[in-house]
Amino acid sequence: MQNKLVKAFKATISSIIVALLITGLLILVIKLFFGQEIEQAFSLVNKVSITIDENRVEEPTQINEEKNTLENYPEYGTKYGTIEIEKIDLELPIYFGDTLEILKNGIGHSSGSYFPGEGGSIIYMGHNYKKMLRRLGEVQKGNLIKITTTYGEYTYKVYDMQLIKETELDKLPVQREKEILMLYTCYPFNNIGYATQRYVVYAELEK
């Protein structure tokens, strides 16, 4: 009787080990072939964007240097520039708006904030998966962020980084005393599922 119990126990353990090996192999295969898609799907669960206004709807032409305003504005949802951060080998398109569809394609621009060259707060955001802002935490004070738009080029120097709650909108102030770029993503960077924190990089326009 005891031998039968021992044999049954060994058989059960063997079955569990085989099942674990098969499960591990399946997870590895899924990650290799569908990892990016799964990561993007989980990222979209997070409420990354902070939409304030959607009133600007025309294509940009040029900046009015005297008034620090664009003559026209990009249509909501369209690409109007690129962002480059050499420190983390990043180059991504910038879109006006912050819908989930926009954020799948690149960096979103909060519609209630100013545009580069207008002299105020610029709020950009993006998801934290690998091809987006996963490495944003590696950016350091003094690093440069280059924004190339359809109407000009602007360089910003990083002066601060903060970890904030998604509800702390006062940490992303819209003002026009000086030109500040605020770029943020969900935190932790490797988070799966909903995240309640945001990692923000602050940079000021170089004169």
Can you offer a commentary on this structure?
The chain is of the alpha+beta class. The chain has two domains: 45 residues; 160 residues, Sortase (Sortase, Chain: A). Helices cover 24% and strands 30% of the residues. The chain is built from two helices and ten strands; from the N terminus they run H-E-E-E-E-H-E-E-E-E-E-E. The strands form two sheets. The chain has an eight-stranded mixed beta barrel. A hairpin with a 4-residue loop joins strand 3 and strand 4. About 9% of the residues have low confidence.
What is this entry, summarized?
The protein contains two helices and ten strands. By secondary structure, it is of the alpha+beta class.
Produce the secondary structure layout.
Blueprint lengths: L1 H44 L17 E2 L4 E2 L8 E7 L4 E7 L3 H6 L1 E3 L11 E5 L18 E6 L3 E13 L14 E8 L9 E9 L2
Parallel strand pairs: 4-5, 6-9
Antiparallel strand pairs: 1-2, 3-4, 3-7, 5-6, 7-8, 8-10, 9-10
